[in-house]
Amino acid sequence: MSSPEATRLYSPLSTSPFALKNKPPTGSAWNPLHWHSLFQYHKTRLALPNPDKFERLHREVKDTFTTNYLFDGAQANIVKELSSSFHVQHQFSLGSQVMPPMYNFMSGYMTENTMVQGTMDNDTNLNAVVRRMWSPRLATKVVAQLTNMPGHSMLQVENDYTGSDFSLNFKAMNPNPLEFTGLYMASYLQSVTPHLAVGSEVVLQRPTADMEEAAMSLVAKYSGSDYIATAQIQGMGAIQASYYQRINEKVDFGVELNMMVQGQRREAVATVGGKFDFRQATFRGQIDTTGRVSAVLEEKMAPGFSFLISGDLDHVKGQSKFGVGIMLSA
To answer: Which own/partner pairs from 121-127 qualify as long-range (CB within 8 Å, at least 24 positions apart)?
Structure first.
């Protein structure tokens, strides 16, 4: 007669497949053939989270800054949803101090696994992005830029692999397989504890077949319950550190420090930004140690209609920029 323990272990009706999966592997720890199974078993017990992509290390801090939202002059954006997967956008801008009057037409198509987006301006410059999810873990993205200016067209191919506790990315910009020229980047980010992730990025630049330059950067990211601290040491003595703090569901703050330590060169710029979400508006403010102050306000006047105000003041250079805009979604 079999014992109750034997019945509980071998009967498919009484044994959970998860229990078998979490069962310690058999074999000696001194046997190299068992090292992989032992490593996978202990890593699974840690339940490490995915650390997100390498290129998104400072994403939360950047979202509190005005850098990606500033504009000057007058701007109008009209977005039309033609279907649940397809939309078009018209953008008009004029009165800018740094850009001529411009019109941009944008269109996008998105499904669960595919995203296609294109932009063309009044000078027929074209930007296109195609992203395809081959599986929940593997994705490919192609970015193309075609311009009338010689030497400014660009092609970038990117592959992402998202593991349970790591992220792997490969990029190739203007690759030439015959001469192996172009810009190549590989990055890896690994969670080592539930809160700490470390990683590295390698950049190989080959503008010509007889010219080559390589650089490597090291990063560390610590995520708390309501804060994220990130440090990155790049080649040529460049150091970037950031800190993100979530005050509450409507207030976020971010701090970024960029330093250059190379030979006799010593430079540093610190930036502080804040994001405030109100019931009908979003305000972003930013100030840095170079004497530059900027702010962007987006006011939702009605469903589908927003009013934008942007301001940028450089006290050291004595320059200022101001912009107003509207955004209409239909």
So the answer is: 123/148, 124/148
